[in-house]
Design a protein that fits this description.
31% of the residues lie in helices and 24% in strands. By secondary structure, the chain is of the alpha/beta class. The protein folds into three domains: 75 residues, Urease, subunit C, domain 1 (Roll); 331 residues, Metal-dependent hydrolases (TIM Barrel, Alpha-Beta Barrel), CATH 3.20.20.140; 85 residues, Roll (Diaminopimelate Epimerase, Chain A, domain 1), CATH 3.10.310. Strands 8, 15, 16, 17, 18, 19, 20, 21 and 22 form a nine-stranded mixed sheet that branches. Strands 3-2-7-23-24-25 form a six-stranded mixed sheet, with helices on one face. Helix 3 crosses helix 8, helix 13 crosses helix 16 and helix 16 runs antiparallel to helix 17.
Length: 546
């Protein structure tokens, strides 16, 4: 009896000593299939989180080394670093929820039906919408405002195309904006037909209409940002690279983050306006644990779908039309030299081969004495094969894989077969620059990073078409696609030392999925669901875990 009591007492003492030796932490995740995306180890089964950061990564031995407030046994579910969308329009996503949704319309008649339904039983002083795409209609022609004029003669109507680079407006909007047959605006097109305005504006002229539309209130913007965050977290995003914001919107995001009302991390590209340039070049980059402001977003040209992309030769389906530069070549070069002398990154939207050539050449000249600028070409969509070699470690491509699978039905009509050799060339760009940042461009495309992954590795649409993949030589491997959505996205934002992988010392942003997208049959990728999303080691979205 005395011996048993001795052993019990000894066991209690040893247990207390062992417990006191263990490190106290907030969370241990174990029995998981962890893709760390780290430099030294790719896979693990467990990791430890404390005070919002990863402090250890390894195997089941971590359960013995630490005492955690909470332990998650994931029963071999896959875990990835929080996904980074390297090019999106976060605020616009939220604001669009209050506008007419025209995505997926199969005819102009359906567009009109949705606008009428939106406007019914409402007292409106203007109507805004977004999402139409004439390429999805039986008639591929750009629409005309006549029906809108008949339905809405007294209030302005402005309906953006899916890519945001074209807009259909009614006569009331044209009148309020002062647009007539004689109006000329550089950097775009006011479309005319048979000597009349059609109501279609492409690129820069749209600003004339935007200026007369009601501006969202601060309260509406706050709600929009929080709605966008909810959608982002549900899709496994923990960082968004917002491709173009004005100063006031950037500091609104900052105030919400500091108040704990917005937890999404934001890499904010500053819109290239004289006011924004003057302020940020004087004040310098701005950085908090949730917000990073150290880049400018510039537009070289428009979009291919609205024939605003700047091409070297005429569009194959529109004689003598080569698109247009939104920012002229001399202005691009002057801005490149100015930003090269600052701490700021230059991120330029370039779709057409002419635009890409001008941007790449301007970057190359301006960056001669820059060591690690990481300047980005956003979209890098149609590139003359002789210009791809202008990418390098200083000039990074930031691409959206779903653009290829959305555009494939009509891209050859616009470009002809030969120009497709340098179109949506993800693999070639990766081999040239060494890294590739992946995003969606939402709300142009859907928010889903799983569609990004699927389009990158399969090059197919949701119906698994085409069977061999679209321009299949530019497929990425599963690991390359994952890196593009995590560590390479962080690198493109100068944030690879703080996020993008599950490694000790980095912020504990991670996601749990219901299947291993790196291993599952490609037919099942699009059915993937997020089990939980964590930011700073805290659950911000869950459909299973409490």
């Amino acid at each position: 009896m005395k011996v048993n009591r001795l052993f019990i007492a000894f066991g209690l003492v040893v247990g207390i000593l062992l417990s006191s030796c263990q490190n106290k932490v907030d969370l241990i995740v174990h029995n998981a299939n962890v893709y760390t995306m780290g430099q030294n180890r790719l896979k693990a089964s467990a990791f430890v989180v404390d005070d919002g950061k990863f402090i250890d990564v390894g195997g089941e031995e971590l359960l013995e080394a630490y005492a955690a407030k909470k332990v998650l046994d994931l029963q071999e579910l896959p875990v990835y670093p929080g996904f980074i969308d390297s090019h999106c329009h976060f605020l616009s996503l939220g604001l669009n929820l209050g506008k007419v949704d025209l995505v997926g319309t199969k005819s102009f008649e359906e567009v009109l039906e949705r606008v009428e339904r939106f406007a019914s039983n409402k007292e409106l002083n203007a109507i805004s919408g977004r999402g139409w795409d004439q390429n999805d209609w039986e008639s591929k022609k750009l629409p005309n405002k006549e029906a809108l004029d008949a339905l809405f003669p007294d209030i302005p109507v402005a309906l953006r195309r899916i890519d945001g680079h074209a807009m259909l407006v009614n006569q009331k909007a044209l009148d309020l904006a002062g647009i007539t047959l004689e109006t000329e605006v550089a950097g775009g097109q006011i479309v005319k037909e048979n000597g009349k305005l059609t109501g279609v504006l492409i690129d820069t002229p749209m600003k004339l209409v935007t200026a007369i539309l009601p501006k969202p209130s601060v309260e509406e913007k706050i709600q929009a940002l929080q709605n966008a965050e909810e959608i982002g977290f549900a899709n496994g995003l923990t960082t968004v690279s917002e491709a173009g914001l004005d100063k006031d919107d950037i500091f609104l995001i900052d105030s919400l983050q500091k108040a704990g009302l917005l937890r999404m991390r934001v890499y904010a590209m500053v819109s290239n306006t004289p006011e924004n340039l003057e302020y940020f070049l004087k004040e310098g980059p701005y950085k908090t644990d949730k917000l990073n402001v150290r880049s400018f977003k510039v537009y070289a040209d428009g979009a291919l779908g609205s024939r605003g992309a700047a091409l070297k030769e005429a569009y194959s389906d529109l004689e003598n039309h080569t698109g247009a530069f939104i920012t002229p070549k001399d202005s691009l070069e002057a801005l490149a030299y100015k930003l090269a002398a600052s701490p700021f990154q230059m991120n330029t939207h370039a779709i057409g081969d002419a635009a890409n050539q001008v941007v790449l050449e301007a970057y190359s000249k301006a960056l001669v004495f820059s060591d690690d600028p990481r300047w980005r070409v956003e979209h890098a969509q149609i590139i003359d094969t002789t210009d791809i070699e202008l990418f390098n470690r200083k000039i990074l491509p930031s691409v959206q894989p779903t653009h290829a699978t959305s555009d494939m039905y009509w891209a050859e009509d616009r470009l002809g077969k030969d120009r497709l050799n340098g179109a949506y060339a993800n693999k070639a760009l990766l081999e040239q620059s060494g890294r590739l940042a992946l995003g969606t461009d939402f709300p142009v495309e859907e928010v889903s990073p799983f569609k990004t992954f699927y389009a990158a590795v399969a090059r197919k649409d949701s119906n698994a078409f085409p069977e061999e993949g679209y321009l299949p030589e530019n497929k990425l491997t599963e690991l390359e696609a994952l890196r593009g959505m995590t560590i390479w996205g962080a690198y493109a934002n100068f944030e690879e030392k703080e996020k993008g992988s599950i490694e000790a010392g980095k912020v504990a942003d991670f996601i749990i999925l219901d299947r291993d997208i790196a291993k599952v049959n490609e037919k099942r990728i699009l059915k993937t669901r997020v089990v939980a999303t964590f930011v700073d080691g805290q659950i911000v979205y869950s459909n299973r875990i409490n």
